[in-house]
Specification:
This protein is an alpha/beta fold. It is built from nine helices and 14 strands. It has a single domain, classed as Ribonuclease Z/Hydroxyacylglutathione hydrolase-like (Metallo-beta-lactamase, Chain A, 4-Layer Sandwich). It is globular and about 50 Å long. 48% of the residues are buried. This is Metallohydrolase.
Length: 268
Amino acid sequence: MGIRFSVLSSGSTGNATIVETEDAKLLVDVGFSAKKMDQLLAERDVSAADLDGILVTHEHSDHIKGLGAFARKHDLPIYANEKTWEELNRQCGAIAEANVQVLETGGVRDFGSLQVESFGISHDAAEPVGYTFHQGEEKLSLATDLGYMSTKVKEKIIDSDVLVLESNHDVGMLRMGKYPWNIKRRILSDIGHLSNEAAGDALGELLSGRTRRVYLAHLSRDHNMMDLAKLTVNNILEEQGIRVSDKEVTLMDTFYDRPTPWDKVGQK
């Protein structure tokens, strides 16, 4: 089977991703109510009863809105670093002691044959992280809510077979948009969100002969469009002399209102 995954929903209104192998099934973030999460999982024919746990990237509401209720409903362990747990304890209500699991930033945890590693990112949260997933030679990386693409993050996610990468906003649309300037400044900062332009620049360094698909994720509904994000990234790569078609890399959609189809990481 190898690793397969589905981005259940991605965007400023809520985020969740399911990652599984033949002997492990993990949820990354719970950005919706428990009822909505059950519905999203059912669309991918997954029962919450089969989950081995929940990985948390950070404590912002679009990533943990239903975390406490969902974990209590299905008696699921939650994995997060200590600083994130300090915030979760304030926001999620009581969690059974056995389900409070600490996975420190940079830590590695095995779930059956699936190896999970967290890595630090730059965002205005207590201690935000992204994750890489390994099984054998297969590698999947999830990196969203990035103020900027640091060298350390690049080192962690390079040579991924599949990459889920933030492409949050078009800079021009954001500057002209309806948000107050203090919010715009926060989004544009090094602890905000990665723009289409920044995603394209980063991919110019990240793409290798191994990378087959890049999912552009966490798009703003007010200051971006998927077609624009893909066009911008494509154009930047071409300006750097990288033709996506020549590298056999495909830019993939994510959605705020429905899951992506199952994707097998090792699939060419």
